Every structure is written in structure tokens, then in C-alpha cells.
Amino acid sequence: MLAADPTLKQTVVQAQASARARNSMDPIKLIASDDSEIILDRRAAMVSGTIKNMLSGAPCDGSQFTESQQGEVKFKEMNAATLEKVVQYFYYKLRHTNHVGPLPEFKIEPEAALELLMAANYLDT
């Protein structure tokens, strides 16, 4: 059987990794509950474990999410202000991933804290 062929499996895995590397800067569209849109680099969106899973499905295994095919993710329960702050955090996280020493503060307004906490929980960030 083809599926049992380890060489074929390794080739598929390498092709998927190569495609992901090429597409790391492809734009992704995040859509808030009010239909406002934020476009960001795929690499920044991948800070979120949830978004990463949605965008990483392989087309050949039948598990690919619609979001991966369309390059956009809609958040029906997240307003535009929360989504904007989440995207700011994605870029903050990328910028400071290998930072040594104290990190610069990522400011969060107290009135936005609960919404951001719920978003962070959902997004696995």
C-alpha cells in the first residue's frame, strides 16, 4: 500500500514543511464580530495555537479547515477592539520571543482585561 510506504510519507511531510516555510509571510485575514478585518502575516497569526491548528491542515489528509483554504478566520464572539489588541500581542510576542532580560510592558487597559483574557484562553496564546 502507498500509505505504508515510509519514503512516501517522508516526502509528503517534507513537502508540507516546505510549503509552510514559503507561506510564512502570506497574509491572513482575521474578521471581528462586526465584520471589521485585520490583515496580518501568517507568521504572526501562528502565535495562536488555535489559529495555527486552523491554518495548518494538510489538504491531502482530508482534515483541512475552511480557514486554511480561504486564508481568513472569523471570530463571531470577538469585537474589533479586542481583536486589534490580540494582533498587537501577536507581533509583540514575535518581536520578543528570544529576548533576554526584562520584557517591555505590554499595556492592557483595565476595562479590556476580561475580554482579552477570554480571547487569550480561546486562542491558546
Automatic annotation (TrEMBL):
Keywords: Nucleus. GO terms for biological process: ubiquitin-dependent protein catabolic process. The keyword DNA damage does not apply. SUPFAM superfamilies: POZ domain. Its main location: nucleus. Transmembrane segments: none annotated. Gene3D superfamilies: Potassium Channel Kv1.1, Chain A. It is found in: Nucleus. Belongs to the SKP1 family. This is Elongin-C. It comes from Prymnesium parvum.
